[in-house]
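Exercise 7. Given the encoded structure of a 448-residue chain, write a plausible sequence.
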């Protein structure tokens, strides 16, 4: 019996060793810039970019970058954070993180526009390998990108990735923003307009309550049950999914709304929004069980579609870039599934408030490569906020393969009239997809 027991242990050990030997080695962890070409326009005082690695390391990673300036002098015309020393930057990607940020600040006010700085990654600690985007040229003037590839930094969480990502094709830029970082957006156009954070999601209803009323725990629980999405028809509590501001829930000035921010603490708020004057909103809010009311004045800034506020921080917070500096937003948000609201991952919205439009083109990667301006006349551009939406991928189906739909790509016409073709490459779903969920990879090119 003992011999049999020992033999079993030996065989089990051999089996485990065999399985371990069969595990494929991890692919190289590469380090790349977020773009290969960027520009600082006349109206911008700084520009930031990130250094990204494919997966987080257990210890800090030091990335060494050579800096070559053309027509500008460090300390006189520009500075960097981290600081440049001896024509080099040492940036640190912290353990557990996948990126570090470099900021370039413009000091000189008068530049010709042809000055530039080139950043070259020379090495990285921890055995990391330099990727394809190891060089970045920053020009002191606006650029119109001819195209690139990009890994969107949706962050951790897989299908529930923590960030929304805004992409500007002409500027080769992406902006990642934590979905939980804001509560409401105030419209900067001429009319009164409010949006709720649909990425949480957020629901609301109008009431006859006073803003300083104290709601009992029992009543608060009843309200939360009413406002919680539970696979029933609750569209009346949601902002219009097409982005029509006239159909937003919070549309009456001076009324008190009960607003339920799913997943946040506190979750239930009383909210009252008024016009202080033609160019300023006053936002008053208090948690459901509190009579202590906080207030924020929000001045309209027409450079942006919306100005965003955080109840947690009691201040205005940055979310989307300037309205003419983003084209699409990739995010997790509420969508319509049949007759009920449902939380979707990997939704792609277009910037309808800045006039961005999009068209879907059926064709494979060869059709994408061959697509040029001679074919634009037959494209049917749409101003639907979900002209791309979730149509580019399949995450649950019994009738078609999971993953990116390889039989289509998209055209996106930006606010300046530039048309870019857009194709999704990897998303971490489906057989053979080597990407990572929450970090979708795209390619885009200016249609000529």
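Solution.
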């Amino acid at each position: 019996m003992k011999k049999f027991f020992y033999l079993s242990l030996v065989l089990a050990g051999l089996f485990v060793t065999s399985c371990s030997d069969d595990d494929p080695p991890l692919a190289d962890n590469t380090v790349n810039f977020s773009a290969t070409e960027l520009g600082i326009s006349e109206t911008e005082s700084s520009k930031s970019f990130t250094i990204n690695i494919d997966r987080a390391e257990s210890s800090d990673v030091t990335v060494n970058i050579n800096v070559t300036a053309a027509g500008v002098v460090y300390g006189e015309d520009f500075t960097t954070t981290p600081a440049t020393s001896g024509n080099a930057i040492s940036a640190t990607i912290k353990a557990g993180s996948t990126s570090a940020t470099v900021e370039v600040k413009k000091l000189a006010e008068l530049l010709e526009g042809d000055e530039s700085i080139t950043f070259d990654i020379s090495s990285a600690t921890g055995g990391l390998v330099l990727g394809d985007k190891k060089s970045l040229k920053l020009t002191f003037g606006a650029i119109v990108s001819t195209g690139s590839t990009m890994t969107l930094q949706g962050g951790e969480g897989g299908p529930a990735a923590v960030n929304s990502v805004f992409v500007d094709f002409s500027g080769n830029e992406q902006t990642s923003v934590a979905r939980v970082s804001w509560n409401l957006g105030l419209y900067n156009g001429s009319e009164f307009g409010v949006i709720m954070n649909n990425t949480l999601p957020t629901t609301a209803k109008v009431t006859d309550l006073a803003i300083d009323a104290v709601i009992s725990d029992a009543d608060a629980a009843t309200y939360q049950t009413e406002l919680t999405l539970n696979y029933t028809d609750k569209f009346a509590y949601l902002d219009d999914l097409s982005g029509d501001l006239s159909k937003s829930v919070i549309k009456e000035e001076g009324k008190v709304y009960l607003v339920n921010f799913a997943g946040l603490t506190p979750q239930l708020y009383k909210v009252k929004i008024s016009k202080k004057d033609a160019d300023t909103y006053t936002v008053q809010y208090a948690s459901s069980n509190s009579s202590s009311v906080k207030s924020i004045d929000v001045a309209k800034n027409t450079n942006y579609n919306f100005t965003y506020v955080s109840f947690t921080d009691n201040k205005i917070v940055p979310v989307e870039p300037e309205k003419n500096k983003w084209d699409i937003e990739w995010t997790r948000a509420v969508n319509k599934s049949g007759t009920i609201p449902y939380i979707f991952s990997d939704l792609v919205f277009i910037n309808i408030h800045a006039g961005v439009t999009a068209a879907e083109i059926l064709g494979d990667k060869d059709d994408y490569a061959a697509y040029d301006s001679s074919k634009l006349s037959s494209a049917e551009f749409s101003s639907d906020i979900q002209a791309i939406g979730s149509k580019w991928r399949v995450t649950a189906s019994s009738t078609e393969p999971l993953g990116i739909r390889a039989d289509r790509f998209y055209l996106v016409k930006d606010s300046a009239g530039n048309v870019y073709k857009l194709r999704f490459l990897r998303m971490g779903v489906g057989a053979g997809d080597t990407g990572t969920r929450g970090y979708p990879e795209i390619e885009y090119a200016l249609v000529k």
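Remark. The helical segments are 2-22, 217-227, 365-370. Students should compare their own answers with the one above.
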